[in-house]
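Problem: given the chain below (368 residues), write out its structure.
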Amino acid sequence: MKIERIELRLIQMPLLSPFETSFGRTTLRRIVLVRVDVEGRTGWGEVTAGESPFYSYETPETAWHILRDFLIPWTLKKSWNDPSDLAPAFRPIRGHYMAKAALENALWDIAAQEKNLPLAKLVGGTVEEIPCGVSIGIKPSIPELLETVAREVAAGYQRIKVKVKPGWDVNVLDAIRARFPRILLMADANSAYSLADITHLKEFDRFNLMMVEQPLGWDDLLDHARLQKQITTPVCLDESIHTADDARKAIEMGACKIINIKLGRVGGFTGARAVHEVCRARHVPVWCGGMLESGIGRAHNIAMSALPGFTLPGDVSASKRYWSEDIIEPEVTVSAHGTIRVPLAAGLGYSPKLAQIDKLTVRKESFE
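Solution.
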């Protein structure tokens, strides 16, 4: 593939309702989109970084800089036989996985179009539909949270994830379990605790959770291993896992029993497939985490979630949960029994709504 043109766009998308985690509250998403043109075909990728450097050091501004000044010049200078060739070429740049993923994933979109295959099938997907869960942020009150959980359960979502932090955890989980004793439930802490909280974290065991996600430091494996030995609830790692080697070490240390794979966090499909294979070979289940993506990022997540090791419901949910109007058509919808059909069309399987993207664009730059 010889890349003829790459375009960066920064779009702003207001969320239908605020989304709050242990490290902040989001009301407006600022998303960098990457458009790549190759011999009459166009592929799209999305930078999944948050607006502030709390989940990760990456932001839309850092991604724009790394793409503009490093990744795009390197990519335009060469012909590429396969999208997976980008990952080793980008290795000299330390980190910046979300910037790398956006560009690589756009090439995967084009490669699937060239081969007349659905993207999910090209990357190794084997299923026709994926199970869906939903992520619920911190709410102003427990009654409001319970109303939200009830609404999502009624909508058919197969798993409920709630954000927790000190002061908003045991009381919340207790209230949910009292009203919904049999739902699949998990808690996501986004690194809000330390080993000093281990006695408190042991209280989570009585709620029969699927997992507690990233309870300790974002870059930690050792303390998570110590925690997992002392609690029965499975620990799931998210922020700590950027590479297949991270996953291998975490599993060998006993730092987790489950791994969340986020396409942006691991650098794109090449990295995601490598982490997936490490986990699958060791019988560790994985699932797809979300980053409040637009429809483009959501479509890539659907393709990744079709891989055979993604046996747990992920955070891929319907467009209408987040946006008054998404930037793809058709928008992502979830069935009454909590699944999404994997698209059968060649490429991404969804068409970018160019007029809507133009409307939301606040900055753009092209490279040829």
